[in-house]
Design brief:
This protein is an alpha/beta fold and about 525 residues long. It has 3 domains: about 20-100 and about 180-255, Rossmann fold (3-Layer(aba) Sandwich); about 105-160, no CATH class; about 280-510, Rossmann fold, CATH 3.40.50. It contains 18 helices and 21 strands. A hairpin with a 2-residue loop joins strand 16 (about 380) and strand 17. It is globular.
């Protein structure tokens, strides 16, 4: 039986002392070497960024440090703990706190109860009254304020929160737990730009307290804003560890993918004068969208930018039948349509790629071939019987075309985030839609995979299709789109030409525009 040990603040290493040492770390899965002999140290009072392409081993290393996974070979030692970390319970005793990309939130608990979740479980029962924690206390409200959630009621259910709010709620636990190492594994992927400053403030407090922060991320602008050192992994091996002040994004990208990354070129202008819009939306109400109007022309990539709660995802879901519109008009090639389900949208050649690929994008118990076939099975069937020869042949072509690592029989859930996203994109594009809505298409994806997905998006538009890209990353939309619409309070408040705008224009408009 494992006994929980409370670590005192005096057990923390001093700034600059070794916080953990990883020696000869190997992690093998059937047919895959996720990590192959990694030696790495982390120091107290620093931010160590861990970067690499999808499948490089970043998250695997983070899980090993947190005890979620066990090394095939090698060992990890945490300062002040008398033996190598072997499981999650020991890692917690050693003072390791891990924040996952998919936050651990209990939907049926209140916001306040979720703040204190790790404290509650120290009692005999996880129910809030078992440990006499006041989840509605002034302390709870203060903690929420520190992570940008001061506007939430502590007694509202967590199920009602958006992805960014859920992630920040998870991060609030750093304020109420005792730890000397904090791992942020793609935790900024679900948050929007306005919450990044809250994360920076949290990291600053942790660093000043002597915590070692390991930051696993694909977002190099955030890596350079936050970190002291950068460790780069490629194909399971540690390529280099550099001081952030002595390197640059181009060098890190080259180390990650083994070659210089070609810059994404902004698409050539599309001539729309005198043409009929492919999609016209007028005075659309649905979800948090409140009177949205816009057009998308054939060959156009239109961006939709806004902060959390602006209504951007509600627009994407409503115009594609994921949610039924309350009122308003949607026209496709001049014909008014009523889209009350994804099936009806697909019949009208309209598809939606969700922002939450793990929950809604693919079937976890299906392999790549089965997931890629889902939308187009009727096309490959006759009399209700699937032509498996045609299916297998086409799936093999899709895997090659979309550069998916893993064969038709590989379970999609076992792939890296970027490869999962390619499977989802391939699945929907195989239906040859005329209008594609992509909600946060590159969330949690490395720079190499991003460039690949950008090429796919531009390729769709080049075939005279219409594309709407919803993103919380202003810089992404500026490089990807022909036009950018900015939303605030459920409405489109301005439109920008990416050739004449910058990130500051988009962010200021999203924050301060007066209706």
């Amino acid at each position: 039986m494992t006994t929980t040990v409370e670590r005192s603040e005096t057990a923390r290493p001093r700034a600059g002392d070794v916080a953990f040492t990883a020696t000869g770390i190997k992690k093998h899965y059937p047919g895959v070497k996720a990590l192959d002999g990694v030696d790495l140290e982390g120091y107290a009072g620093e931010v160590l960024a861990v970067c690499g392409a999808n499948g490089a081993g970043k998250s695997t290393f983070a899980k090993l440090l947190a005890g979620v996974e066990t090394p095939t070979e090698g060992e990890i030692r945490v300062a002040g703990f008398d033996h190598p970390v072997r499981n999650a319970a020991e890692a917690e005793q050693a003072g390791v706190l891990m924040m996952f990309q998919e936050p651990l939130i209990i939907d049926d608990f209140t916001v306040g109860e979720n703040v204190w979740l790790y404290k509650l479980r120290q009692g005999r029962d996880i129910r809030p009254w078992a440990n006499k924690v006041d989840s509605n206390s002034a302390e709870t409200r203060e903690v929420l304020g520190k992570v940008g959630l001061g506007g939430l009621r502590t007694n509202q259910l967590a199920r009602d929160l958006g992805p960014g709010q859920r992630q920040m709620l998870s991060l609030s636990r750093a304020e109420v737990t005792n730890h000397q190492i904090m791992i942020l594994d793609e935790t900024t992927a679900s948050t929007s730009e306005e919450h990044f400053n809250d994360i920076l403030d949290l990291v600053k407090r942790e660093r000043e307290a002597g915590t070692h922060i390991m930051f696993v991320s694909h977002r190099l602008n955030e890596v350079f804003a936050m970190s002291d050192r950068i460790a780069v992994l490629r194909n399971g091996q540690l390529v280099d560890v550099l001081k952030t002040s002595e390197t640059n994004p181009d060098e890190i990208t080259t180390l990650m993918i083994g070659q210089a990354l070609k810059a994404v070129e902004r698409p050539a202008p599309v001539q729309t004068e005198g043409k009929q819009p492919l999609v016209s939306v007028r005075d659309l109400h649905g979800g948090t969208a409140a009177g949205v109007s816009f057009d998308v022309f054939p060959g156009e990539v239109v961006g939709l930018y806004g902060l959390v709660g602006s209504g951007r995802s509600s627009v994407g879901r409503t115009v594609t039948g994921q949610k039924k519109a309350v009122s308003g008009t949607i026209l496709i090639r001049g014909e008014e349509v009523q889209l009350s389900s994804p099936g009806q949208a697909l019949e009208k050649s309209v598809v939606y790629l969700t922002e939450d690929r793990r929950l809604e994008g693919f079937v976890k118990d299906f392999d790549n071939g089965e997931n890629m076939s889902l939308v187009v099975l009727p096309k490959w069937s006759k009399g209700g019987v699937i032509d498996t020869t045609k299916e297998k042949s086409r799936v093999a072509e899709l895997i090659s075309e979309f550069q998916v690592k893993g064969g038709p029989k590989t379970y999609t859930r076992s792939l890296s985030g970027g490869n999962q996203q390619k499977v989802v994109i391939a699945k929907w594009l195989e239906s040859d839609p005329d209008f594609v809505v992509l909600d946060e298409p590159t969330k949690g994806i490395d720079v190499g995979a991003r460039a690949n997905i950008y090429e796919i998006i531009h390729g769709v538009a080049a075939r005279d299709k219409g594309v709407l890209v919803i993103s919380s990353e202003a810089e992404e939309l500026l490089s990807l789109c022909h036009r950018i619409l900015v939303m605030r309070n459920g409405k489109v408040v301005d439109e920008f030409d990416p050739a004449e705008a910058d990130t500051d224009d988009l962010i200021r408009t999203a924050l301060t525009h007066q209706d």
